[in-house]
Automatic annotation (TrEMBL):
GO terms for biological process: methylation. This is Methyltransferase type 11. The chain crosses the membrane at residues 20-36. SUPFAM superfamilies: S-adenosyl-L-methionine-dependent methyltransferases.
Length: 268
């Protein structure tokens, strides 16, 4: 696998110069596999349905956070900021999006017309925010790229106020034993674009950072089959790899909703 510098450069190109969100496989400015529970997969799938699945994935995470009016919200790995701004439906006091790719921050800023939302450049393991700045933290299909998940967990705990809520969704290796097979089975893992973080390691990092009520729930039944059907039927000039579904069927990878809470009275 490529070293950290090569992997970082590959992601910078993929999300910056190439602008992954502009590819037809995604659509709507999002970059996620989608939550397909409400889509009929027996017939054709429209671009509008594809966009709706990506909105639905954000809604799964936002619902898990149980956002309240006046909350301060941050998304780590915000991309174009389309999903970040979706949190505005819950009447927060402010929403911040963080991304490591300068072009993504620029795109998100240019598209934003709500004074409650703003976007910043920074890494998941080194966030440019003060202690206790937020009541809720989300991350949607970004943590599979994080080189330092333990650092992300520590920073998440730092920037959340006591009682703050944490929710992320993405795909992880189902176990440490499965990780090497996953790397061999899916090109994005083999090249280092995605990292085969075992889900139990992610949960362990959150607990070590001081989070309570740490849990992971599989939502793969509503992700893998729909994504594979879209790759089969939808616009495919990208020639996107369909190996994810095969790896999921082998039990090597799954898609998770991970939630946690910073205990009240701990920190700010």
């Amino acid at each position: 696998m490529a070293d950290i510098e090569e992997r970082t450069a590959r992601r910078q190109h993929m999300y910056g110069t190439r602008d992954l969100a502009a590819l037809p496989v995604f659509a709507g400015g999002f970059i996620n596999f989608g939550y397909w529970r409400d889509v009929d997969l027996s017939g054709p799938i429209t671009v509008e349905q594809r966009v709706a699945t990506q909105e639905a994935l954000y809604d799964v995470v936002l619902d898990a956070l149980a956002l309240r009016p006046g909350d301060r919200v941050v998304e780590v790995g915000c991309g174009h900021g389309v999903g970040t701004r979706r949190a505005l439906r819950h009447d927060p006091a402010l929403v911040r999006g963080l991304d490591l790719v300068p072009e993504q921050v620029a795109r998100a800023t240019a598209a934003n017309d709500d004074p409650r939302a703003a976007f910043a450049l920074g890494a998941a393991h080194d966030m440019p925010f003060d202690d206790g700045s937020f009541d809720a933290l989300l991350s949607v299909e970004a943590a599979q790229h994080f080189e330092d998940v333990a650092g992300f967990a520590r920073e998440g705990a730092r920037v959340l106020a006591g009682g703050g809520r944490f929710a992320l969704t993405t795909f992880f290796a189902t176990s440490a034993a499965a990780a090497p097979e996953l790397v061999a089975a899916v090109e994005s893992f083999a090249t280092g674009l995605d990292l085969a973080h075992p889900v139990d390691d992610v949960l362990g990092h959150l607990r070590a950072a001081g989070f309570a009520d740490v849990a992971a729930v599989s939502i793969g039944e509503h992700v893998w089959r729909g994504l594979d059907r879209w790759l089969e039927l939808g616009p495919r000039p990208d020639h996107w790899d369909r190996a994810y579904h095969r790896a999921a069927r082998r039990g090597l990878v799954d898609y998770y909703l991970v939630t946690a809470r910073k205990p009240a009275g701990s920190g700010v």
